[in-house]
Amino acid sequence: xxxxxxxxxxxxxxxxxxxxxxxxxxxxxxxxxxxxxxxxxxxxxxxxxxxxxxxxxxxxxxxxxxxxxxxxxxxxxxxxxxxxxxxxxxxxxxxxxxxxx
Length: 101
Known about the structure:
Elements: H1 6-17, H2 23-30, H3 34-52, H4 67-80, H5 85-100
Helix pairs in contact: 1-2, 1-3, 2-3, 3-4
């Protein structure tokens, strides 16, 4: 298995984020699976959030992000703050199912 440089990883992730390539295309280009590309995207977003520690301003003063980027950023911020609505909903469903049985 080839070890990819940080530059290769950045190019692949940024090409998807800039909507220049579909994830499957970017993954194929660097010879990886789509799951690994998803991991790289998660790591990149985590790194950006840690490095920048965003101080949110009004939406109008923020740069325009794609819908996909907004959702990913919101999910990462929720995870970082300990709010995981999808996980909480899933756990509630599992707990309710266990109590019924």
